[in-house]
Amino acid sequence: MRGSPCADGEGKPVIPFACLIALAIHSAPVPAMTVSELYTWIQANVAYFGSPAAGVSWKNSVRHNLSLNKYFTSEARRPGAAGAKSSLWTVRPDAIPAIQVSHALPRGYGSLLWPPCE
Hints:
This protein has helices spanning 17-27, 35-45, 47-50, 58-68, 96-102, and strands spanning 72-75, 88-91. The chain is 37% helix and 7% strand.
């Protein structure tokens, strides 16, 4: 996403965290990720969040979106699996059309976000 319309002139993303999270989960081989995997994906794919300017408060926004946004669900890992204490987050299959409609890019950046900014 570096250098794409997903970022403003200073590199800060112009799309909502819900869309970044959905894109991250959608990009995984198995469409489910832990919070830690989401952080890693966002830092690797959105230059702003990998820079010191972003700080760490954006991680609170990721957790907030996961826990309060109806688009995401969590499921416990099987006992004995690596990282069994952390939940796997997924995008509800019926949520994809809702993400398309409710998270359009701001004026001048194109159309709908699914798949976001590819």
